[in-house]
Design brief:
Layout (H helix, E strand, L loop, with lengths): L1 H5 L1 H130 L5 H17 L10 H5 L2 H9 L6 H12 L12 H10 L4 E3 L6 H11 L3 E3 L11 H4 L3 E4 L2 E6 L2 E4 L7
Parallel strand pairs: 1-2
Antiparallel strand pairs: 3-4, 4-5
Helix pairs in contact: 2-3
């Protein structure tokens, strides 16, 4: 204390010495740490540079991996598509093999069918001639007389060297089996005589007169024609009006319960006495001309 009071210079020097002593103690502690800090910072910088380089490499690898993954996904989709196509092709090949096998088994039948068609083409002129004769003339006769007529006509065609089927069956030549089955369902009997009559009723050019004591033909006609069928008899007061409307509109008509004589007013219809007026067909019924619809059936 006395030194501080006696000399300011000594005081200052003392303070400097003490400060240097404190600095020395702190420096000896801090400097190694500072050196280690610099070393650590240098190492950190080096590691950060290495990390950045590694990160860049990682980014490149990840980008390449993403590209390869997308390519892999595309290839897998392509593989799946090819697999589906292969399965489809395999199924098609299997079906083709089945078809070829089936066609091979059908070859004999087709050859027989072709031979039969060629034979039937050769016989077509005579068969058409016999069918036309049957359709035109056999309607009123029973089965035995029809058979005799067919036999007679067949012999006549042979004498004239016109080829025809032996034996000739009218129903086989003119009737569609599917349509015949439908007729049977609608009530037409299954015997040959009834089927022949059915063919003549549906294909004949003249209006058919059906002798039907058991009402089988009537039942069949009603079932076949359905609700559009107009049913009349000569005892009805307005039967001609119904007939005229049916002719004009092209509806089928069933004229039932007729006697030995018919109303002369029906003659133009029965004989199809058409009058051509302006390119259309008409029928004169009494004092009226009725336009004829080709869908009309009697």
């Amino acid at each position: 204390m006395d030194l501080l009071q006696q000399s300011l210079a000594a005081k200052s020097l003392c303070m400097w010495v003490r400060a240097m002593e404190v600095y020395g103690r702190v420096f000896r502690v801090v400097e190694p740490k500072r050196q280690r800090l610099w070393q650590a910072q240098a190492i950190l910088k080096e590691k950060q540079e290495m990390l950045a380089a590694a990160q860049a490499k990682l980014d490149a690898v990840m980008a390449e991996m993403a590209r390869l993954q997308a390519e892999y996904n595309a290839k897998m989709e392509q593989k799946e598509e090819l697999r589906r196509k292969a399965e489809h092709t395999e199924r098609m090949l299997e079906r083709a093999q089945q078809l070829v096998s089936g066609l091979a088994s059908e070859k004999d039948r087709w050859e027989k069918t072709v031979a039969d068609l060629e034979r039937r083409i050769l016989l077509l002129p005579g068969d058409c001639l016999l069918a036309c004769a049957f359709l035109s003339y056999c309607g009123p006769f029973l089965s035995e007389y029809r058979d005799e007529l067919i036999k007679f006509w067949y012999e006549s065609t042979n004498c004239d060297r016109v080829p025809c089927s032996d034996p000739f069956h009218f129903t086989d030549f003119m009737a569609d089996p599917t349509l015949v089955r439908e007729w049977n369902i609608q009530g037409l009997p299954r015997d040959t005589f009834s089927i022949e009559n059915g063919v003549m009723v549906t294909l004949g050019d003249r209006w058919p007169l059906m002798v039907d004591p058991q009402c089988q033909a009537q039942k069949w006609i009603k079932s076949m024609m359905g609700k559009k069928l107009q049913i009349i008899d000569l005892m009805m007061s307005d039967y001609m009006r119904i007939m005229e409307n049916a002719i004009r509109e092209g509806k089928p008509v069933l004229l039932q319960n007729i006697g030995e004589r018919l109303d002369p007013a029906l003659d133009p219809i029965l004989t199809k006495a058409f009058i051509n007026v302006g390119g259309s067909k008409t029928l004169r019924l009494g004092d009226r001309e009725v336009e004829y619809n080709n869908n009309f059936k009697l």
